[in-house]
Design a protein that fits this description.
With 338 residues, the protein is of the alpha+beta class. It contains twelve helices and ten strands.
Length: 338
């Protein structure tokens, strides 16, 4: 265990290095921070921190920089989440409230996160597998052709054409619409197949084929939309951090193009808290020089997807964590009210 004083020295090193981009020396630390000890004592503390792998000496510089292990300790023990100011919170709310549909919510969220953090923003669309049905609409397009519209609690809208085996009358359509919604509205997608399996039996024999076709289309929609979708923005922000990527920025950019990699980075949506993965904690080799800050968002108390940012390990962790958490909270509110 590190002593309280050495923890304070580590915190000061992280703060100075993030702020100045320059390796930090003992003289600068004692001048900038009220550590209450002499430069010689700070030098001893820095030597101990280096021996334990929390800081390192780049090249022949007299100063030190934090390692992945140092950043990890900083995030776990030393960094409070920096709260957003009242004007910042109002700006977030006003920007997101203008969204007209789910695609617009996601697009605005990506843009906002990239601007707030000046890093790469990644937003996962709400997954149908974790959503509930808000409403199922059935519209007659022709005597034997229907449109099925599925609306989720997260504002997602899916449309499918249904070709009926025989013409289907308006009264039968209204009956099916009412019976279907009475069973599935407000219920989780995972429960839908069981809830509707005996529904055809409630109809006259000549209508059962059409009812079964509509239900098959509905269930196929759930399977098709199992695939996760992402939106990414602010990639150009990485060019500001060229010197933070030891060899080249290319592996980072290539990794960001792979959707599977990004989904793994964001982590499981069911974990709603702020998660920080630093440097080599990211399994993908191309992202070993980056940190990922992510959090779950959703309507109600349950996360239906994740959002977050990717940037260099030399990032403002308290500020980034605060921005990611605040944006997720507002996105959840908008989904709940939509």
């Amino acid at each position: 265990m590190l002593s309280e004083r050495r923890l304070q020295v580590l915190r000061a090193i992280v703060q100075d290095y993030v702020g100045t981009e320059e390796p930090v020396g003992s003289k600068a630390l004692t001048e900038r921070h009220s550590l209450g000890v002499s430069p010689a004592t700070v030098r001893n503390d820095m030597a101990a921190l280096e021996d334990e792998g929390y800081i390192a000496q780049p090249h022949t510089s007299a100063g030190r920089i934090p390692t992945d292990k140092g950043y990890r300790l900083f995030v776990d023990k030393l960094a409070g989440v920096k709260p957003m100011t009242a004007p910042e919170r109002r700006a977030i709310q006003n920007f997101l409230e203008g969204a007209v549909d789910l695609d617009d919510v996601v697009a605005r969220t990506v843009r906002l996160l990239a601007q707030l953090t000046r890093q790469v923003a990644v937003v996962q669309y709400p997954s149908l597998t974790r959503s509930t049905v808000r409403h199922v609409e059935l519209l007659s397009l022709a005597p034997a052709r229907l449109m099925l519209v599925l609306i989720t609690d997260t504002g997602r809208v899916e449309q499918r054409m249904v070709d009926c085996p025989v013409p289907f009358g308006e009264s039968s359509l209204a009956d099916l619409r009412a019976r279907l919604n009475s069973r599935v509205a407000g219920r989780r997608f995972a429960d839908v197949p069981q809830l509707v399996e005996d529904l055809p039996e409630a109809f006259e024999a000549e209508d059962r084929g059409t009812v079964s076709t509509v239900l098959s289309t509905l269930l196929e929609t759930l399977v098709e939309e199992n695939e996760e979708r992402l939106m990414i923005g602010g990639t150009a922000n990485l060019t500001r951090f060229g010197h933070d990527f030891p060899l080249t920025i290319r592996p980072v950019l290539e990794a960001l193009e792979e959707q599977v990699v990004l989904l793994k980075l964001l982590g499981e949506a069911k974990d709603p808290g702020v998660t920080v993965r630093i440097g080599h904690e990211n399994a993908h080799e191309g992202l070993n020089s980056t940190s990922v800050v992510s959090v779950g968002y959703g309507s109600g108390g349950e996360a239906v997807a994740k959002l977050g940012v990717v940037g260099p390990t030399r990032m403002d962790y308290p500020g980034t964590m605060g921005a990611v958490r605040a944006v997720a909270r507002y996105v959840g509110q908008i989904l709940a009210e939509s």
